[in-house]
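go over whats below:
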Amino acid sequence: MVADADEVLAVLGANNGVFPKPQEGDPSNPDSDASPGNGHGGKGNGFKRWGLSAETPYESRFFSVLLDEEGQVLQTDTGQIAAVDAEDAAACAQGVFAAGSSSGFWGHYRYLRYQSDSGIRVIFLDCNRSLSSFRSTLLTSLSLAGGGLAAVLVLLLIVSKRMIRPVVESYEKQKRFITDAGHELKTPLTIISADTDLAEMDCGENQWLTDIRRQAQRLTGLTNDLIYLSRMEEEQPKLSCIEFPISDVVEEMAHAFLAPATSQGKAFSISVQPMLAYTGDEKSIRQLVSILVDNALKYSPSGGQMALSLEKQGRNLVLTVSNTTDPAMEREQLAHLFDRFYRTDQSRNSQTGGYGLGLSIAKSIVGAHKGKIKSDCRDGHTLSITVTLPS
């Protein structure tokens, strides 16, 4: 639309604010002899040379104003438009003169300003009809697009609900199975542990009974972790939120790992901002700190470094636990650290006894407290787990 308007204004500007008259031999001249069959159709240079239709002068509504160098009106021509009088035309031209632009829109008029031999001429072309058509087309297109998207959304909601229903049901059954199986396993594991103690009293301590007790304890720990994780995700239990001194709790839990870290030749630095309080479930926060520090202790190499920090940043409490890693951790592994049963190094985990559930439980605890947990390993050799808790 703008390009077409500028073409018309260019023709008007080249002819001092009027359309050129058709010349002899121009098919647009009704008085010429360039009718079909007379052999003169190609001699004219009227509207064809400008690329305009012969109907353009009759379809266009325009007016022009001639100004002097000071912006005073010298002449107005409103003969081709009925909606604008000389006073309105002069006001539009002086507004364009003050703006200083050579082309643009003034209201719904597209204008062209140029220097002519007799002064500064400003030509205005009425684009109201084109603008109305543009707005109508745009509004209709947006309405149709919105309606189409809404229809597709409704169809997707209807169809996807039916498509994913089996998946949802399967996932719910899986979670119920883990919970139910965990409860069923607790009884025989308790009996095995009790019978092992009785057998040891009768037969004395031996390697076989020690292995039975150790494996029973591992299965009990795994079962308890699975039950806890399923409850957090399936039942979403309400936490016993009370205000407690989180600085003391974190420092207490961290100091419990100083001796194991020292015995393994690992440096463990603790930095806890004092006098910090937090409203949440104290038991869950203790478990969270224990999981993170235990994870750092298990998967840091001998002679490696561990660090724990707790500080207040704005309105949030930020807990960070970091440890060196060997071998280097790939960035692709970070996205899966909080997945169930995910282990970065199968051989090392078989030695440390991990099941890959600790960080999943940590994520559930943080989520229950409306916080965020993320992992980062910028240099590839130092893994940092950062927990942000809203206070």
